[in-house]
From TrEMBL:
It comes from the Eukaryota. This is ATP-dependent 6-phosphofructokinase. Homotetramer. It catalyses: beta-D-fructose 6-phosphate + ATP = beta-D-fructose 1,6-bisphosphate + ADP + H(+).
Length: 432
């Protein structure tokens, strides 16, 4: 059964991944290359391993090169020969055996290198930036009329790549985040009015924070970039912390690194810089919020708190992938190989509605995936933590007050629509 939204976009279908009857490349003419770009993610080595083994075992391809250190490795570094033997154990290690980098994408130099080395299959593993780079390589390869398959494999622990169900490594990262949350909870519940603050990755998308919170059940408040929050006044964070401490004696806050950046910039001078790939560098919201909470309760003098701040940032992405991510990485890599061997190009291998598919690059690069705070999952989180939605921002308050002052009806009588005849009748309130 196919379930569609009544008003949703129709007619977007992706080609199903898998082996094809007709194989475009002869095994001995294939010169494949693999590159990993952007930040680390659990499962990178598994994908590399399964690409090498898939090419070799399924199609008899013997020549596979590893490009060292991300995109710039195409023109600035030596390559590594990859064989099933050399990659045999790498899935047990975190990181990427090929190395990675940000920046350094020079389309012309990269395609020159592809041409010079006689590469005819390029497997590019990386996040949203990497897929944009892969798309530029694909266009340049096409412009030059080269017989080269350019294939993307989506990677990001932030889960910010659109269309696909989720990115590999995400489950592993969420699982590892549990350890930090658990530590924060143990610290918080061991003292009077203890607060544990955990900062997790997610610069534009709060998926890791949201799923880590839902998985844990120890988290009382989850703050993500998509849901602006405020500290002071009714419905604010300080009020909620006070309530939670009075109710429960301790609390845990999970905050995504991209949350509340506008608040931090108000009080800390913005660095206003970017990384080598052009991604905005963020302020440390975890440190900032911890200090704000400490200062607030110190000023109040009514509720002495103890706050512990845990920042497991790189720990959740520098680890090997768990069992389910290993399976997922294997399927992505095998699908990528089948597509390239069949002669497809300009696609990303991805899971869509539970099916392995080939997604044209432009679908992946046209937008970013975000937590939709009006959607079910965020509502489920709010029900689970019972935290404020922070939708009642100051502006809304003012509006509400204005609305309330409009209700100046004579207080003896109120209007009601009757359910049986739909006529408006006037009834007296029960208390009168
Ligand atoms: N618009 C773009 N066009 C071409 N290349 C790009 C573009 N954006 C980024 N890249 C290149 O892609 C590589 C990785 O980009 P980036 O550092 O943004 O990481 P990413 O792939 O988005 O992964 P993540 O954000 O998950 O760490 C870099 O080498 C960068 O130069
Ligand atoms: O310090 P680096 O390597 O730039 O990586 C940090 C960024 O990488 C990501 O993990 C995405 O890969 C983001 O969540 C984070 O902001
Ligand atoms: Mg990115």
């Amino acid at each position: 059964m196919v379930v569609v939204h009544k008003d949703g976009a129709r007619g977007v279908h992706f080609r199903r991944a898998g082996p094809r009857q007709k194989v475009y490349f002869e095994a001995d003419e294939v010169q494949a290359a693999i590159v990993t770009c952007g930040g680390l993610c659990p499962g990178l080595n598994t994908v590399i391993r399964e690409l090498v083994c898939g090419l070799n075992h399924m199609y008899g391809v013997k020549r596979v090169l590893g490009i060292n250190g991300g995109y710039r490795g195409f023109y600035a570094r030596n390559t590594i020969t990859l064989t099933p033997k050399s990659v045999n154990d790498i899935h047990k290690r975190g990181g990427t055996v090929l190395g990675t980098s940000r920046g350094g994408h020079d389309t012309k130099k990269i395609v020159d290198s592809i041409q010079d080395r006689g590469i005819n299959q390029v497997y590019i593993i990386g996040g949203d930036g990497t897929q944009k780079g892969a798309s530029a390589i694909f266009e340049e390869v096409r412009r030059r009329g080269l017989k080269v398959s350019v294939v993307g494999i989506p990677k990001t622990i932030d889960n910010d790549i659109p269309v696909i169900d989720k990115s590999f490594g995400f489950d592993t990262a969420v699982e590892e985040a549990q350890r930090a949350i658990n530590a924060a909870h143990v610290e918080a519940e061991s003292v009077e009015n203890g607060i544990g603050v955990v900062k997790l990755m997610g610069r534009n998308s709060g998926f890791i924070a949201m799923y880590a919170t839902l998985a844990s059940r120890d988290v009382d408040c989850c703050l993500i970039p998509e849901s602006p929050f405020y500290l002071e006044g009714p419905g604010g964070l300080y009020e909620y912390i006070e309530k939670r401490l009075k109710e429960n004696g301790h609390m845990v806050i999970v905050i995504a690194e991209g949350a509340g950046q506008e608040l931090v910039s108000e009080s800390v001078q913005s660095m206003g810089t970017q990384d080598a790939s052009g991604n905005k560098l963020l302020q440390d919201v975890g440190l900032w919020i911890s200090q704000k909470i400490r200062d607030h309760f110190a000023e109040q003098k009514t509720l002495p708190i103890t706050l512990k701040y845990i920042d497991p940032t790189y720990m959740i992405r520098a680890i090997p992938s768990n069992a389910s991510d290993n399976v997922y990485c294997t399927l992505l890599a095998q699908s990528a190989v089948h597509g390239a061997m069949a002669g497809y190009t300009g696609y990303t291998s991805g899971l869509v509605n539970g099916r392995q598919t080939y997604i044209p690059f432009y679908r992946i690069t046209e937008r970013q995936n975000h937590v939709v705070i009006t959607d079910r999952m965020w509502a489920r989180l709010l029900s689970s933590t019972n935290q404020p939605s922070f939708l009642d921002v100051k502006g809304d308050h003012e509006e509400k007050e204005e609305e309330e002052t409009l209700h100046q009806v004579p207080n003896e009588r109120i209007s009601k629509v009757t359910s049986d005849n739909n006529e408006i009748s006037h009834v007296y309130p029960a208390a009168c």
